[in-house]
Amino acid sequence: MNTTTTIPVNRDVKAELKRQAADMRQEFARRGTLVINVLSSPGAGKTALLESTAKHWRNQHRMAVLVGDLATDRDAQRLAPYCPVEQLTTGGACHLEIPLVRRGLEKLGTDDFDFLFIENVGNLVCPASHDLAEHLRVVLLSVTEGDDKPGKYPKMFRTSDAIVISKSDLLPHVPFSVEAAIADARLIQPDLRDFTVCSLTGEGIAEWCAFLDETRARMIAEAAAADSPSAIMEPKLQ
Ligand SMILES: Nc1nc2c(ncn2[C@@H]2O[C@H](COP(=O)(O)OP(=O)(O)O)[C@@H](O)[C@H]2O)c(=O)[nH]1
Ligand SMILES: [Mg+2]
Hints:
By secondary structure, the protein is α/β, with parallel strands linked by helices. Helix content is 37%, strand content 16%. The chain binds guanosine-5'-diphosphate and magnesium ion.
């Protein structure tokens, strides 16, 4: 017996989500909120990076976080002492999409932020294909994952603007070449900016935060100068 039913929806749902993301990106830029989509495999140190970023900026910038996981609000609990945060639980889905991000924004309750970070579900595959209205896409690679990973997960690195090599304190203990990892990633995406950080000691965090500051300033200037979305607002998604 065939139990499959086809329901005609008569509209391109993916195109609709892309359009929503583009509109939201433009609106965030107009308001001066830089949106950063943070991606990596599970445990690479996304939440730790956001914790150290929030500590670095305390009383200096207004930042908020939407954090995605399959289940639990553990990451939101970690970040709550430092900044406004909402946990997005996907209930099994391996990536975030715009409707869940919208719900998180409603819960955050205000749009008065300089930086909005979206910590995606830990996964180097599916999140690469979903535009979350970000201006910057950042992929973390921790030194314990191996320096050969960029070439194995090309779409994630091709669609990113920056690579953050994390857990630099562990470099003396693992065979990982920062130069080789960055070179491998740049074969896929030559324009990638690179940062090497240790979120536990704060090494590299000032440089990372300065990059975000500069990018936000550029976004604000470009949004003021142009009616149409600027190059910085265009995602590399394809
Ligand atoms: N040694 C070391 N451990 C880290 C660093 N950043 C994160 N960790 C640890 O790595 C684990 C995963 O970090 P987490 O931030 O939860 O990663 P996420 O799953 O990508 O959000 C935790 O046990 C962190 O304490 C770092 O810079 N150095
Ligand atoms: Mg996390």
